[in-house]
Specification:
Layout (H helix, E strand, L loop, with lengths): L10 H13 L7 E2 H8 L5 H11 L10 E2 L16 H8 L4 E2 L2 E2 L2 H4 L3 H8 L1
Parallel strand pairs: 1-2
Antiparallel strand pairs: 3-4
Helix pairs in contact: 1-3, 2-3
This protein binds a DNA duplex (13 and 13 nucleotides) through helix 2, helix 3 and strand 2.
Length: 120
Amino acid sequence: MQEKETKKFDKQNFFELVYQVVRLIPKGRVTSYGLIGQYLGSKKSARMVGWAMNNAHGLADVPAHRVVNSVGLLTGKAFFETPTQMQELLESEGIIIKKDQIQDFDKVCWNPIELNEELV
DNA sequence: GCCTTGACGGGTG
DNA sequence: ACACCCGCCAAGG
């Protein structure tokens, strides 16, 4: 009867959680690995988020192009089919990018934690 | 089974 | 202001 209540996110769910969050990113908005890590409970696990994205690489449901590092740099552009794919997609959504660097990053930065608090 | 790497972040020098 | 180092957690070799 007692369903195992996971007080902590299972590593398997961890990837799924990341996919969910990335999937929830509104168009024209971006987020950082660190923010996702914070949302999952560990702000220092940004690397795991990146790892999760690597698994997400190939999932069309996960707009990885909307995920950048804390400085708004397209660090993961090299993982796309083309090194410009990420920039093109972001620019197509209204985001301005210069030299793999998102302009007005503070404006397009989307924090999943705020969304959570909003729902609360 | 241990060590290294990895789409990061923050702190110290 | 820039560069280097450590820390986090998981997976691949």
